[in-house]
From TrEMBL:
It comes from Heliomicrobium gestii. Keywords: Transferase. This is Glycosyltransferase. The keyword Chloroplast does not apply. SUPFAM superfamilies: UDP-Glycosyltransferase/glycogen phosphorylase. GO terms for molecular function: transferase activity. PANTHER family: GLYCOSYLTRANSFERASE.
Length: 384
């Protein structure tokens, strides 16, 4: 797959929280591929929940942005009809509309026969929408049928299975996802998540000016940090437990809030710092004494392979995580909090056990889990 153009159907906005899709696409661009990244769609119902979308994504539907001129472009898809996760016919209509936008964009870019690399099960109906795809890749990173909202799990499973059967290569980011996909694709390849090691290892060294970000809380004995989306998959009760137990700790939470956090907002030592540019995240992580991965344990999270854990380790930081199956193998360097354990106690233990030797061990492990190595493994599979 040398020098071919790639259309990536992303599950997260390019300018949102950076995760697997963006990391892989940047590295594909570094290897000589031109990339068109399609942001996930909003529906006509979205402004009912967030009216700001009327002035942002609603008006920019179909817009093409050169985020890295000559290498990477971002496309705003058309606004979708709602309930496409519940009715296959609606998904077919939406995908035909997306195909029309893609055909115009590909013509504008002068691309012919691109690779389709998708993260969304609904792309199953894009495969037969009149675009000549060179190669089809499905990278499964979530149990889509386990999400809450306007989703019929049976419809989602049927679309995902249809997509997997028709793709040339199928990858999974977690063992549970691999086992699920094996039912329809016995050749599914497990490729776990990773870290941008070079980027996050900056957090292990002092800045020349050694200045903290202005909005980091000051005056506390320890800063306990989290980076990522704060949704219903995050165990906010455990965060509140730790904040109440230690008024001398500041809990600094970085990322968009997508769930009720009123109980946390009422606590004087919990700070919501909002979304931060990816480029400055090491400046914040540098000042965290312990980094958290506080996922709830449920059907959805059993298949989560948290990117943040790899990033924290690349920074050399002590990590406390709930007992996700994908985190358990890292227990020698990650403090894994079992359901019967005190989350506060686990943070206390991580603080007490930290040392220069432990930091070096974490960073050494992270270096063995880089995005470059992951992409090489995927391309080798595609090249078979």
């Amino acid at each position: 797959m040398t020098g071919v153009d790639i259309v990536c159907i992303g599950a997260a906005e390019w300018h949102g929280i950076w995760a697997r899709a963006q990391q892989l696409m940047v590295r594909l661009a570094n290897r000589g591929h031109r990339v068109l990244y399609v942001d996930p769609p909003i529906t006509y119902l979205a402004p009912l929940k967030n009216r700001d979308l009327l002035n942002t994504r609603w008006q920019s539907a179909g817009r093409l942005e050169a985020v890295d001129p000559g290498r990477i472009w971002r496309l705003e898809p058309p606004v979708f009809l709602p309930f496409h996760g519940m009715r296959r016919m609606i998904n077919r209509i939406n995908q035909r509309r997306l195909a029309g936008t893609l055909r115009r964009t590909l013509q504008q870019l002068g691309w012919d026969q691109p690779v389709l690399w998708t993260y969304l099960p609904g792309s199953c109906d894009l495969l037969s929408a009149g675009i000549d795809w060179r190669y089809l890749v499905y990278d499964c990173v979530d149990d889509h049928a386990a999400f809450t909202g306007l989703i019929d799990p049976a419809v989602m499973v049927a679309m995902e299975n249809d997509l997997a059967r028709r793709c040339d290569a199928v990858f999974a980011s977690a063992a549970a996802l691999q086992e699920k996909m094996r039912l329809v694709r016995p050749d599914v390849t497990l490729v776990a998540n990773a870290a941008d090691v070079e980027h996050f290892s900056q957090a292990a060294t002092a800045r020349p000016d050694d200045k903290d970000p202005a909005d980091l809380p000051a005056g506390f004995r320890h800063t306990i940090g989290f980076v990522g989306g704060i949704g219903d998959w995050i165990d906010t009760d455990k965060l509140a437990e730790a904040a109440r137990a230690h008024g001398d700790w500041a809990l600094a939470l970085i990322g968009p809030v997508e769930t009720d956090v009123s109980a946390l907002q009422a606590l004087p030592n919990v700070f919501f710092l909002g979304r931060k540019p990816y480029s400055v995240l090491p400046d914040y992580v540098r000042r965290f004494d312990v980094c958290l991965s506080p996922f709830r344990l449920n059907e959805l999270t059993m298949s989560v392979n948290p990117v943040k854990v790899y990033e924290y380790l690349a920074a050399g930081k002590p990590v406390v995580s709930t007992a996700l199956p994908e985190v358990l193998p890292f227990s020698p360097v990650v403090t894994v909090c079992q359901p019967t354990d005190s989350f506060t106690g686990c943070i206390e233990a991580a603080l007490a056990e930290d040392s220069p030797e432990k930091r070096a061990e974490r960073m050494d492990l992270a270096r063995r889990h880089s995005w470059d190595a992951r992409l090489t493994a995927m391309l080798e599979k595609i090249g078979e």
